[in-house]
Amino acid sequence: xxxxxxxxxxxxxxxxxxxxxxxxxxxxxxxxxxxxxxxxxxxxxxxxxxxxxxxxxxxxxxxxxxxxxxxxxxxxxxxxxxxxxxxxxxxxx
Length: 93
Hints:
With 93 residues, this protein is of the alpha+beta class. Helix content is 44%, strand content 16%. The longest helix is centred in the middle third of the chain and has 21 residues, at 37-57.
């Protein structure tokens, strides 16, 4: 997963979300980076809302069960399909 460092504008291989706790360091400029929390919440909300609506309207599934299925499927699909689209942001302390 190649992304661009917002500080030095060089393409880097960002680690997966589960590979670091709070942030990671750019190997070129040593800037402290992390994935954008807004992107993470936005993608999660859109995927879960769309999945729940489809399960309820098309599949006639109970709303609670549809919500559980959508949340678990997002968690399982996040690493493969969504993490490459999360923007990197520079952490300031």
